[in-house]
Predict the structure.
Amino acid sequence: MRLTEHPILEFQRGKKITFSFDGREIEAYEGETIAAALHAAGIRILSRTKSGRARGLFCAIGKCSSCLVTVDGIPNVKACVTLVREGMDVRSQRGPGQIDPHFRPRTAGPPLEQEAEVAIVGAGPAGLSAAKTLLEHGIRPLLFDENPHPGGQLIKQTHKFFGSRAERAGTRGVAIAQELIAEVRGEVELFSGSQVLGIYEDEGRVLAVSQGGRLLLIRARYLVVATGAEERFLLFPGNDLPGVYGAGAIQTLMNVYGIKPGERALMVGAGNVGLIVAYQLLQAGVEVVALVEAAPTIGGYHVHAAKIRRLGVPILTRHTVARALGEERVEGAVIARVDERFQPLPGTEEELSVDLICLAVGLTPSTRLSEVAGAKVAYVPELGGRVPLHDETMETTVPGLYVAGDCAGIGEASTAMLEGRIAALSALERLGRKLRDERQAAQRELGELRSGPFGERPRRGKEKLLSLMKEVALG
Ligand SMILES: Cc1cc2nc3c(=O)[nH]c(=O)nc-3n(C[C@H](O)[C@H](O)[C@H](O)COP(=O)(O)OP(=O)(O)OC[C@H]3O[C@@H](n4cnc5c(N)ncnc54)[C@H](O)[C@@H]3O)c2cc1C
Ligand code: FES
């Protein structure tokens, strides 16, 4: 169902169009993804595994491959990041998609080649801040993002941000995204809906980019990878049913496309993301039946917890989701108390009538691209998992390859913007600009941001990384 009213957002929908899904005519609006339009039409099953298990949306940002469909004869297209077009023929798949032997693709021609001093992957706060810094110093970077709309995680954050005043705390995430985009619009060459597939060396650094069926080959001297994070999964029976979503997917459906994701929700995880998304579900008219948290205490800010409690949502600590119920999609959930080892306690189970289960159990850095480029990574739990080694200038073990934001360790938008700025200043120094003082000032600001109690964990994580980086430098 499409939302028409929302306490904060106004949904500007594009021209009405139609496309078909497995032969059924579906109404959609230009600017929506295939997955969003299908959800609005009440369709949750996008494809099936080889053995016939139903598959639906999970991450909604192109990171998990749970939404693969065949579009106009081309298999394995991600429905969550592909925009609908008038007359498009979309088909569900069973297992890995097959190309019809009679299928003749529209020829895309030879790869398009382009050169740049600096290329940036990811147009979230880190990538946009890097782009802005480069522009301030006369460099026009190429900026790639696989999602159809730039802004990264910010485009779905309706709450006023915590963090640093200097980095726009107190402003809603959606508004920060608009400000950041406006600062670079028209100046930076932005390629939306363009996934960077790989980075390799061929007489210099080359990025292979897939854009609407075309291959772009980009030669760039310096590269800032700002690919963000992906959602963690949780093990429980039925966790693959359509109707089990990552918190970010729920936000994308509700806050980007104005689509109500369900009627009755179970939220799993009482960190800030779980608490905030539970509130946003209530704002979209979804009943949040309960919020379960395996730890003995709430992890997020108590102000967010108090808000949803006031609206009647029970927050059950020392509880988890034991299983999802349903054959083809979520029709209920069983929750249970857990012991000290987070195992469900027999006899404490309770059945809830819900049609959606939202997992907000943490994020892990998206390191694939930097790893493909040869950057060394290390497992640092304080930073969310595997992280590319990097120094204070954000340079990885691959010279000229910088990382910034959540892909360099899970943090916040404020720290992502500062890291993007530092990475860009470091690349500019390599290009001969005298910017050491400016870079060091940004590094000090970042240190101050992480000096509070909530910055302690990432601060420890970054210290570990720096010492690992020094070991690598010493050989
Ligand atoms: C519910 C919630 C609430 C939050 N609240 C706050 C808050 O109040 N204050 C705060 O400071 N922070 C908050 N955050 C955190 C903040 O949103 C993130 O830390 C920040 O967005 C990270 O920025 P980023 O640029 O590193 O990554 P992202 O914002 O994730 O952007 C990464 C971009 O890279 C693109 N990308 C990835 N891979 C590729 C590829 N191969 N090719 C092309 N493009 C690619 C993605 O499409 C995406 O647009 C919140 C997060 C959530 C989920
Ligand atoms: S890749 Fe589309 S839902 Fe994850």
